[in-house]
Amino acid sequence: MAGSGASSGLPVSLYEWTAGWLIVLLGELFAPVYLRAHVTTVPEFCERRFGPGTRILASALSLLACIVTKISASIFAGGILLRVVAGWDLWTSVPVIIVSTGVYTIGGGLQAVMYTDVLQAAIFLAGGFGGLVVSLQRTGGFAGLAHTLERAGLESHLHLIRPSSDVANPSSGIFTGLIISSVWYWCIDQVIVQRVLSARSLHHARAGCVAAGYAKLLPPLIIVVPGIAARVLFERCRMNGAGLGQPDGGWCTARLDEPDAANAAYPELIVREFPPGMVGLMISAMVCAMMSSLSSNFNSASTIFTVDIYHRFLRPHATERELLWCGRLATAFTCVLSLAWLPVVQRQRGEFYLVVQAASSHLAPALATVISLGIAWRRVNERAAFVGLAVGSLLGLVQYGVSLAYEAECRAAVVGTTIGGPPFACMHFLHMAVIICVVTLVVTVAFTLVGTPPPSSVTDSTTVLWKSCLVDDELSATPSPHVQMVDTDGAHDHHELGARPSTDSPMRTVRDWAAQLPESGTAGGLPPVETLGANAGAWGDPPTVTRVTSTRPGDGGRVGLSATQATSSSAAKHDNETAIAVSSTPRRAKGGCIDSRLGQLAVRSAGASLVVVVIALVVTFR
């Protein structure tokens, strides 16, 4: 990202600021569905919502995207850092990067990944803000930075929004294709979603998403601005005619006006300008960022292969030990495939960040379209989802392969001059993302309308409940219904039990009660009620247990259990008490859900959006 800042300026910041909105969307719209479905991976969710065929296809595409756009990219970026700092070539630094990251990922799994991410994030933020301060000091602050760019004819570096004719960051693609691809990355991709799935409750998941959304305001400041500062120092050296050994530190040899060389802008800035004490901190910060990305992707890839392919289709009865070793071998095999892809990454020219985004924009739109549509629209069926995902993914892979074949002719699109070569091959990747999305959407909707809708037993737990809001504390990843004893005789006794105390009763938990109570119709305008006797056990005399399904408007069919305890002579009696238990069916709050959910989204995003708009206006029109 710093290299893109040095090469083309601030527009790359929009990738991060768009992510802030979408992470909040993950918590508000996607997380309730994921947690309610009780899944381990996103492909598993695809099977519950659509079917096994969609799960296989989603697993394959997720693994391919992880190797092509994430692991290989992180390894290549680490190689650039070690080349500048230590003088190592790519194939010398690769084993160090993989071994240092893979050891704790294979040994500790997701828990180790998350704990180390917290520590590494602290180091990264400390180093990032330190780098921002030093880079602005070297360039004379924002005023000095802007003055040098204007003298060099690069005032467009500070323009956040570019015209649609811009070949690197066209606004027509930024506000369409970027959002489509980012929905997959931040709301659907297993690397990000696995953190939501590990949350203790929906409340924790949403709180983490809000915090992460605000944190996404920082990368443009601590990464992009130092990259622009490196370009300013290079331009200042070139305009002043300073050479190697001159006061500008030999910046003329950095050649940051070439996109390939600009990829090393931040490491060059660290080596040339930072004091010795900060060099170690900054290198540690960059290594932490790289290792955090790699470890998350290693864990994601191994989880998808082990859970969604090996355990689901190859070895359904595999032991835990066998699955553990399968995950470790999957991580190692993923590393091998990523290394095999590195020469392809090396061969591509231009801004490395945009090269990675190009690969993602060919694989992501189909997944984002099908899963988002399936979550939002209950009618989407298995055949429609599979065909739409297959057609969209095939179109993206074909266009990506053609663009690689014509890479030399299309290189001008990355360099920033004029586009050459066949239009289909050299189409900007953000515009191609829109086409893939539209094709996938049309195919999915067409097959949906001519097909049979899925049963409500499938869609109730895998789609957004637009007409009712689910209560947060009843959507935890591991729900635990309880029995609450409320005194009605004025003694104000209060008891809360995790299960019935009886050891000889076949119905030991609230969920067991709910499962054995039949449904009934409505009679006399009263809610449906069925009565079931229960064993006495430690409760004393047998209570009368009833199942009540509310039919009041706005209650959304709330299901509950009521057990009235009669007077008992046992030591455990509770005179005239009533036990109220909420079953495992989610209770729904009154009122419509659309207004409430969008209201929460607006409130939680207001601060972040205001800051982004102010920064964009100031930087663009100053």
Strand-pairing-aware structural class: mainly alpha
Beta-strand content estimate: 5-15%
How many strand units?
6
The sequence of SSEs as H and E is HHHHHHHHHHHHHHHHHHHHHEEHEEEEH
The geometry reads as globular
Helix content: 55-70%
Detail the poorly predicted runs: 413-419, 469-596
What Rg do the Cα atoms give? Answer: 29 Å
Quote the distance from N terminus to C terminus: 24 Å
Question: What about the largest sheet?
Answer: 6 strands, antiparallel
Strand order of the largest sheet: 2-1-6-5-4-3
SS element count, helices: 23
Mean pLDDT level: 75
Description:
The chain has 622 residues and is mostly helical. It contains 23 helices and six strands. Helix 4 (52-86) crosses helix 5 (90-139), helix 11 (219-240) crosses helix 13 and helix 16 runs antiparallel to helix 17 (382-405).
Q: How does the SSE layout of this entry go?
A:
Blueprint: H1 2-8, H2 13-37, H3 42-49, H4 52-86, H5 90-139, H6 141-151, H7 171-174, H8 177-188, H9 190-197, H10 202-215, H11 219-240, H12 259-262, H13 265-273, H14 276-314, H15 320-347, H16 352-376, H17 382-405, H18 407-415, H19 423-426, H20 429-450, H21 456-459, E1 483-487, E2 494-497, H22 510-516, E3 529-533, E4 544-549, E5 559-564, E6 577-582, H23 593-621
Antiparallel strand pairs: 1-2, 1-6, 3-4, 4-5, 5-6
Helix pairs in contact: 1-11, 2-8, 2-10, 2-23, 3-4, 4-5, 4-14, 4-15, 4-16, 4-17, 5-6, 5-11, 5-14, 5-15, 8-9, 8-16, 8-20, 9-14, 11-13, 14-15, 16-17, 16-20, 17-20
